Amino acid sequence: MTSEAVRRVQSESPWEESFGFARAVAVGDRVLVGGTTSFKGSVLYGEGDPYEQAKVAFTAALEAIAEFGLGPESVVRTRMYLSHSRDVDEVGRAHQELFGSVRPVATLLVVEGFVDPRILVEVELEAFRGAEST
What we know:
Blueprint: E1 6-9, H1 16-19, E2 24-27, E3 30-36, E4 39-40, E5 43-44, H2 50-66, E6 75-82, H3 88-99, E7 105-110, E8 121-128
Parallel strand pairs: 6-7
Antiparallel strand pairs: 1-2, 2-3, 3-8, 4-5, 6-8
Helix pairs in contact: 2-3
């Protein structure tokens, strides 16, 4: 795969530089967005509120695919990682508001925890660019 075939987008994540990763990578007809939280720079938005954290995280992920000219209608897969099962309904509500008309394939998992204990939700998504984008 040539370097022209892959394009990367960075964000304000405090871990991207130290861990060596990109927020989103476009390759072929897909755009993949890695684990995204409600951190913007060093500020955590929606502390203690799983609904707000999910909305902020998904919005940041959607901003990453917007760099490739894509919007929510291009999303084909979402993944939601929660630190508490009690937050399923609130995170689901945020997902419904953003993707209810799109209906991507979705996975929701409860995990042991995150890098920062104030994080309640982390999300990922995949978008389809179509054959003309390859």
